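Name: Hydantoinase/oxoprolinase family protein
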Amino acid sequence: MTDVASSSGSTTRIGADIGGTFTDVAAVGADGRLYIGKRLTTHGAEHEGVIQAVTDCGVDSTQPGTILAHGTTLVINALLERKGARVALVTTAGFADVLDIGRGNRSESLTLRFRRQPPLVGRDMCYEVAERTAPDGTIERTPGDDELDALVAWLQTNEADSVAIGFLHSYLAPGNEQHVADYLRRALPDVPVTISSDLSRQWREFERFTTATANAYVTPVTERYLHRLTSGLESGGFQGDFLVLDSSGGAMAVDTARRYPVRAVESGPVGGVIGARNLAVELAIDNVVSFDMGGTTAKSALVERGDFATKDTYWIGGEMRGFPLQVSTVDILEVGVGGGSIARVDDMGRLQVGPHSAGSQPGPACYGLGGTKPTLTDANLYCGRIDKDHFAETFELDVPAAERAIENLASQLDMAPERLALGIIRLATLQATATVRRQTLERGNDPRDYTLLASGGAGPLHACGIAVEAGIDRVLLPRFPGHYSALGMLAANLRTDRREVLLTDLATLDVSALATTVADVAKQLAGDLRSGDHPGAGAVVVRYSVAIRYRGQEHALWIPAPTEGVDVPGDLPAVLKKEFESEYVRRYGHLDTMSTLECVELEVVVQRLLPRVSMVYREPSSGEPTIGESIWDGAEMALKTSYLPRVALAVGDTINGPAVIHEVGATTAIPPGAVAEVQESGVIIIDVRGVQR
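Structure predicted for Hydantoinase/oxoprolinase family protein:
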């Protein structure tokens, strides 16, 4: 518990993040103090871990007006593991095969045995109704009651747990979908119904139908989880507002999450990106790579000019073999490597790290919970990059168990244990670096223009090595990086958005019609947001953007309007053209002056601002450093190393590597040649230009 620079006023804000290994809670109390808690994730009963962590952190969560924002991987796990409901798809006559046909392409044309993942709804659970909406949005035929009675009987016979409705062209005119949904809800009140137009107003029926079926697939499991969690919190005296993190980088009311759980598909990872965005704004840093490594995965996202990018298509199971969702998500790239990633020898006799993780049970060998396989955490402990006496508050590290795990694998490869441990760290670093390179170099961004913000329990351990490999000169270490995703969650605003088709030449864009559309959509979205009775809440911010491309291109660039609000200036086409050309040159290095610019889609984003929470934390310095040894690449022997408690560092302190900084929830490894300095804001900046590759 520590003082914060600025807090949420009189409102208690809590962020709760469930990871593959740990469940983290961060809270800013009404007293203006920061509280943090960490628990091993209770797989199979994740809600219990959240409740325990909230209790352990010590904040008073019973105050009226308390806001608890929760991020979870429940939705993505249910989709990947195929642990959802028995879903029926109701669709336009003649379109029951859309999910099986998909885009009709073969992503891996040279793979003889290529197979796409089967759809969530089999052909036997697809039901066609005689409805028709024309391409211009005209409703030509609406299903009658007799046909809908037959549909109800079919759903009962086939024991559908959840229903998805997806009609052709409903993104323009959702009337038929709404009519059928209303009928089914009256006839089958216990069966949840999802309509595609509620989730997406974009074209491409395959993507829209997969989004609707995915939402229907996870609705029952999400409802059960949220009911258990909210009931458990309320039994402990919680009487505030419960929010769920939206994949687009905001928060939504729990009732919204119950209806549209697919919007929480990336609910877990977005907290760290929100925190990175807010801290970058506070510190006036233009370009940041948000890097978060936990126990299972490593994730990266860009924060540029004070905001993060979002994308409108998210692939479940990978773009090659998976299926797409038309939901707005923060543009996060991730790879299956983290502190719990298991090191092993594959069939070819090669060392591999991940994607399988030891999780929280049994966990890495050093946790002493029964794990015997070597993990990335065990390798770091073996190399002296983790202070065994200051790693966790709830258990002691079992150093001999980690040594046995590393030595057993080393004997299989006939190499020294030290070389194996360094090799495990090296492989994990290279895998994580790939996501950072894809965000920077592979998108035409110069990595030297960016600062790597390290978070997650394992992120600071590997951040310097990743920065060196990616060509980034500086690493930014925030306070409490091991709880940073939870900290970002408690700072999230209520947010919702909608993307609609806007197919017209930019030069002939009807500004008046666009202004009407923006105002109408913003009004609808603002009504979907609920602020509760929170001090300081209520301010609504509206932003809109237009997707623009050269005619004939497949992809477009999203260009934001020049000002906030629903006003559409008369010179908007000229302003958008100028900004598009500037961004196009920045990204691709040239312009196509002979081609016509066309608008493709409109995005309207509405946020309701909640009380501001600072991401800058300061506390008095205390504690004493110790001296030990650690192992690094390129060194012939173990090097003398300083082990420093984060709380012992004062503003202006300089730390030369090799050094290890430990704090609650995370450890930072500073390699030889790197220089770290504590800033006035309390963050640590590490210059890695002197580190040898």
